[in-house]
Amino acid sequence: MFDLFVAKILLAGVMTAVLAGALGSILVWRRMAYFGTAQAHAALLGVALALYLGVDVRLGIVLVSLLVGLLMWQLQQRSDLSTDTQLGILAHGTLALGLVLLYGSGLRINLDAYLFGDILAISDRDVVIIAVGGGLTLLLLWRFWSALLAVTIDYELAKVEGFPVVGTELLYLLLLSSMVALSIQLIGALLIVSLLIIPVATARRLATSPEQMVIGGALLGSLAVVIGVFVSLRSDIPTGPVIVVVSTLLFILSRLLPARGD
């Protein structure tokens, strides 16, 4: 029974880490880490709305994260404010609105589980949703990887070469929103962006190609998840913070090693 329980949460955690390796690489290449933060903070508003309306929490997170992502995308096209200013306003505005809705509506929930994650409370249904949702996300990433990479490297050149740049941007928003929804129980809304950027930033120093960076980020994220889960099982520490600490230590260790090609 214990072995099955551990295998279940490891499956969910490793799938999330693999998704983060691919989506986080694009986030780092685009220098959009704060975009991920805004998406993660918006997730709490999705949680609040879902609980208030009595619908599935993941559905609420995906819809709100996607709407916020679309709003950010539109603002970048039209606003005279800098991108980091826009993202700061949306990130903290949606986080605050979610907290106001939660407390103002009288909802009584374990907020820590959504803020910092609680993978040890994962159910069989959660594992199935993460496995199926993660598998579909990976399939879409594989199918449209060339377009995603082209748009990331040079937006205008990708447009000239005939890539559907707008559709590709919207696809990435959808995939990122889905990843946030799938991983909130693992690592929590406040720490999701850490799983997206720290493992791939660690892998970047040792990789010589985009694909190596994606695979390296997925492997390092998976290692952090495995260690984090076993530490949580033996202590009373939430899984999310432990995973982030392990990821950070791996990043520091990588900085002590010579970069690939040196």
Concise overview:
By secondary structure, this protein is mostly helical. Helix content is 81%, strand content 0%. The relative contact order is 0.18.
- Name the average pLDDT: 83
Instruction: Report how far the terminal alpha carbons are from each other.
Output: 48 Å
Topology as a string of helices (H) and strands (E)? HHHHHHHHHHHH
Q: Uncertain regions: pLDDT < 50 for 5+ in a row?
A: none
Strand content: under 5%
Name of the top-level CATH class: Mainly Alpha
Q: Compute the gyration radius: what is it?
A: 18 Å
How would you portray this structure in words?
The protein is mainly alpha-helical and 262 residues long. The protein has one domain (2-255): ABC transporter involved in vitamin B12 uptake, BtuC, CATH 1.10.3470.10. Helix content is 81%, strand content 0%. α2 packs parallel to α4 (83-104) and α2 (33-53) packs across α9 (165-187).
Structure keywords:
globular; 12 helices; ABC transporter involved in vitamin B12 uptake, BtuC; 262 residues; 81% helix; mainly alpha
Break the fold down into its secondary structure elements and pairings.
Elements: H1 2-29, H2 33-53, H3 57-78, H4 83-104, H5 111-116, H6 124-143, H7 145-153, H8 155-160, H9 165-187, H10 192-204, H11 210-233, H12 239-255
Helix pairs in contact: 1-6, 1-9, 1-10, 1-11, 2-3, 2-4, 2-9, 2-10, 3-4, 3-9, 6-9, 10-11, 10-12, 11-12
